[in-house]
From TrEMBL:
<dbReference type="InterPro" id="IPR000764">
    <property type="entry name" value="Uridine_kinase-like"/>
</dbReference>
<keyword id="KW-0808">Transferase</keyword>
<dbReference type="InterPro" id="IPR006083">
    <property type="entry name" value="PRK/URK"/>
</dbReference>
<dbReference type="GO" id="GO:0004849">
    <property type="term" value="F:uridine kinase activity"/>
</dbReference>
<dbReference type="Pfam" id="PF14681">
    <property type="entry name" value="UPRTase"/>
</dbReference>
<feature type="domain" description="Phosphoribosyltransferase">
    <location>
        <begin position="260"/>
        <end position="465"/>
    </location>
</feature>
<protein>
    <recommendedName>
        <fullName>Uridine kinase</fullName>
        <ecNumber>2.7.1.48</ecNumber>
    </recommendedName>
</protein>
<comment type="pathway">
    <text>Pyrimidine metabolism; UMP biosynthesis via salvage pathway; UMP from uridine: step 1/1.</text>
</comment>
<feature type="domain" description="Phosphoribulokinase/uridine kinase">
    <location>
        <begin position="30"/>
        <end position="218"/>
    </location>
</feature>
<keyword id="KW-0067">ATP-binding</keyword>
<dbReference type="InterPro" id="IPR027417">
    <property type="entry name" value="P-loop_NTPase"/>
</dbReference>
<keyword id="KW-0547">Nucleotide-binding</keyword>
<dbReference type="Pfam" id="PF00485">
    <property type="entry name" value="PRK"/>
</dbReference>
<dbReference type="InterPro" id="IPR029057">
    <property type="entry name" value="PRTase-like"/>
</dbReference>
<dbReference type="GO" id="GO:0005524">
    <property type="term" value="F:ATP binding"/>
</dbReference>
<dbReference type="InterPro" id="IPR000836">
    <property type="entry name" value="PRTase_dom"/>
</dbReference>
<dbReference type="GO" id="GO:0008655">
    <property type="term" value="P:pyrimidine-containing compound salvage"/>
</dbReference>
Length: 468
């Protein structure tokens, strides 16, 4: 059976944000599955995924990392004379880079290999990000020492060679367009010798050997329970600990608070008032967002520009050097998008959906959409959220941006209101990220962590609810 890659651009219930960028504290769990051709590796992997019953597992096939063949090599392959079962047929550099990034929690583009043209499909790939479990399967899944060292669990599927041959004939004839004679020729000339020489010896690298493949339901069930137990042990309950930390009175140096003018205090009075109508709430929230964003623009680099006036005179002024984009932490962060558009009309906006698990208070990443231009070298990102409480959602959102190769010093975090605990938590983890807010709420009620301090549910008041 041809392997299929489970593709996740988003990651429901993704990893907690409190892991180091070097991946040392990342809880991504990698399972390597090896075995002979048509031994049932993919079927075993898919059964494990089904038994785990979680939406954040990625199945990564080694078939995606075949090397592109030259035109001359393609002709040889069409004559069934090319050895696809040699370790030299795979791009181990790309494979190692991909697995390393996944282990570190970073986004990767996995190539799509076309078995008819024997090349990777140009300009197409699977984007994978945020998986907690990666199941990597292939005949050489336990072969390369560097890839092997990153595996948390190593599995070898040991199936009778005659059964493997029957499955391979059925698969290659039905799915890959081979004739029976061609399949037998490849098997006798390449597949069987490669299995004896390279694949079967990797059995000694396995932690678990599954005889008979998918038929061995007991072994697969035990393996699944082991993975579940490992994941459970890696869970962290850091949000509650952060909420209990006593924040120092002095704010971090990277935090910028708008001057408490009468205008600012007046707008905060209006949006805090429970009797304020939704129409007025939106109006003053948009005004306040505009002021926060204008203040954040002062933190960006400018360059000298000479312009010609309508009266044909030249004037020396300043121009914004980088591009500016916005990323909303949904749903409340979307309340600042209108303010961003008013200040920067052509700003590109991405969105991240992070929600709190009510059972343990942990933030969970459910959706991530970042246009490519947000992640280039000439763009500063305004990360927008209405309220910073414990800082858990902000930590995760910043971590997502860093995983997408956005430099830390190019992120400016914007909010209407912030609690000291959240500001210190974010500043401690990411000191190069500047934070701009309009007001500091001195008290965060640790008994109501799911409520936004001082403002109620900002997103509901701005966007309304289903009953409105």
């Amino acid at each position: 059976m041809k392997s299929k890659l489970v593709h996740h651009v988003i990651a429901a219930e993704g990893r907690p944000p409190w892991y180091r960028s070097d991946g040392q504290n990342c809880d991504c769990y990698i399972v390597g599955i090896a075995g002979g051709s048509a031994s049932g590796k993919t079927s075993v992997a898919q059964r494990i995924i089904k038994n785990l019953n979680v939406p954040w597992v990625v199945l990564l096939s080694m078939d995606s990392f075949y090397k592109d063949l030259t035109p001359e090599e393609v002709e040889i392959a069409h004559r069934n004379d090319w050895d696809f079962d040699s370790p030299n047929s795979y791009d181990y550099d790309l494979l190692l880079e991909t697995v390393t990034k996944l282990k570190q929690g970073k986004t990767v583009d996995v190539p799509i290999y076309d078995f008819e043209t024997h090349k990777r499909v140009p300009n197409k790939h699977h984007t994978v990000y945020g998986a907690n479990v990666i199941i990597f399967e292939g005949i050489f899944g336990l072969y390369d020492p560097k890839v092997l060292a990153m595996m948390d669990l190593k599995v070898f599927v040991d199936t009778d060679v005659d059964i493997c041959l029957a499955r391979r004939i059925k698969r290659d004839v039905a799915e890959r367009g081979f004739d029976v004679a061609g399949v037998l020729k490849l098997y006798q000339r390449f597949v069987k010798p490669s299995y004896d020489t390279y694949v079967y010896p990797t059995k000694r690298n396995a932690d678990v050997v599954i005889p008979r493949g998918l038929e061995n339901l007991v072994a697969i069930d035990l393996l699944t329970k082991h993975i579940q137990r490992q994941l459970q042990e890696r869970k962290m309950q850091s949000r509650w600990d952060m909420a209990r930390i006593s924040a120092p009175e002095e704010l971090p140096s990277n935090v910028i608070v708008l001057e408490h003018t009468k205008q600012i205090m007046g707008m905060h009075t209006i949006i805090r008032d429970i009797h304020t109508s939704r129409h007025d709430f939106i109006f003053y929230a948009d005004r306040l967002a505009t002021l926060v964003i204008e203040r954040a623009l002062n933190e960006l680099p400018y360059e000298t520009r000479i312009v010609t006036t309508p009266t044909a005179k030249t004037v020396e002024g300043l121009g914004l050097k980088p591009r500016v984009g916005g990323v909303s932490i949904l749903r409340a962060g979307g309340t600042m998008e209108i303010g961003l558009r008013r200040v920067i009309r052509d700003a590109v906006i991405g969105k991240i959906l992070i929600q709190t698990d009510p059972s343990n208070g942990e933030p969970q990443l459910h959706y991530c959409k970042l246009p490519p231009t947000l992640c280039d070298d000439n763009t500063f990102i305004f990360l927008m959220d209405a309220v910073v409480g414990t800082g858990a959602a902000g930590l995760m959102a910043i971590r997502v941006l860093l995983d997408h190769e956005v430099p830390e010093d190019r992120i400016i975090f914007l909010s209407f209101l912030a609690g000291p605990q959240g500001l210190h938590a974010i500043s401690s983890a990411f000191p190069k990220v500047k934070i701009v807010t309009s007001f500091i709420d001195p008290v965060l009620n640790t008994d109501t962590l799911y409520l936004e301090p001082g403002l109620g549910n900002f997103g509901d008041r701005y966007f309304g609810t289903e009953n409105e």
